[in-house]
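Notebook, bench 3.
Goal today: get a predicted structure for Glycoside hydrolase from Candidatus Thermofonsia Clade 3 bacterium so we can plan the truncation constructs. The sequence was checked against the plasmid map this morning, with no discrepancies at the termini. Length recorded as 469 residues. Pasting the sequence as submitted so the record is complete.
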Amino acid sequence: MIPRPRFHFTALQGWLNDPNGLVYFDGEWHLFYQHNPFGNDWGHMSWGHAISRDLVQWEHLPVALLEQPEYMIFSGSAAVDWGHTSGFGDGARPPLVAAYTAHSPREQTQHIAFSLDRGRTWAPYSGNPVIAIGSREFRDPKLFWHAPSQRWVMACVLADQHRVRFYGSPNLRDWHHLSDFGPAGATAGVWECPDLFPLPIEGEPAQQRWVLKVDEQHFGAQYFIGVFDGERFACDDPPDVVRRVDFGRDFYAAQSWNDAPDGRRIWLAWMSHWDYAARTPTAPWRGMMSAPRELALRRTGDGLLHLTQRPARELHRLRRAHWRIEDSPIGAANDRLRALGARGTALEIGATFACLDGAEFGVKVRAGAAEETVIGYSPAEGRLFVDRSRSGDVSFSPRFDEWHAAPCALRDGTLTLHILVDACSVEGFADDGRAVISDLIFPRPESDGLAIFGEGATRVQSLDVWALA
Ligand code: FRU
């Protein structure tokens, strides 16, 4: 029996996929999610709901939007109507407004609903659908207020055309087509779950660029960098450039919070994959969210910009026992780890290695008698990798027993790794959040071993391990 993750969000019971309706309001981080309230398989799609005051501890609330006789409630987003543009409220408290896809066998259309009680109860707008174009592949509205043009913008996908379609509205009820983006980048799988937001460029005060994220079914999330002028998105790259968000298998349908405080841009994603999501060996819940991550853009020496993701600092609150090792050869550091008794099934690891030759090195987590998950680095290939081929139960899908790699350069001959480990996941971050690999694993609960490895001359500059509550 696979225990429930300790610090990753799961539904109390039943199926979960995409995060939906992420919005911060009145001190609460709202997390809605694609949910089957009636079982552990995809179906009866509705919006589950949870809130948090710190992004760490979640309180489960009743289902917010329940499947209807004529349609299921597919993915979408939520925003605060601060300007009372919709007229849904009483003019005093700003309404929360959700946009979602009503999915029927005939058509996918965009609907809205509103809440006047901090997201606890929702009423559908009587004029739904707000957008219908007679398509079966038209979904996943991401809503946001575009201040420069003083209007609402909604990004949806025309999934099988590999297009993101933008709509504008003064009042959240009446929408007009603004423009389309795509096909571009990776187009082997249908496009889903767009998100669009501005991000600051690290170290360049007052500089920002827009990021358009869109998922490619069966292949994962990709992103484009460019400008959005309230009307259209213009990408900086030529149309054939593909930028991956995450090089693991299990980071899909990421969505960022609207109205996060202090101008932060934080997202999380569904940690699973459509190839095997229906078969992952957990019950009475199935599906989990990634850890929340803070986003930024970083410019490299060649002038190019890249998305970076780092675990949200709120996760520091989970830190309990702490073990630290400084400046040591790998073998001695490993002996020291063992002597300290550093182990656990929920861990945060921060490690800086000084790389002195071409030999592979890294960290093994969730190690037991016959299993381990390896997060390693190959200097010869310039790649970060996660090997989950011996991570535990890999039998439920032929697509699970694999390893995944991300291009990753050393910085001044060193590699800094940041790893989050939980009951059934690893998330590895390197190169300051530019190379990220997120993977599910299903080890035995007693496999709590931790080791570092490396055959060559690599040294551990520093290693911090925290047991997480
Ligand atoms: C993405 C997705 C969305 C859709 C939802 C249905 O994982 O396929 O496109 O709205 O899941 O649950």
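The chain has two domains: 14-311, 314-468. The longest helix spans residues 330-340.
Flagging this for group meeting.
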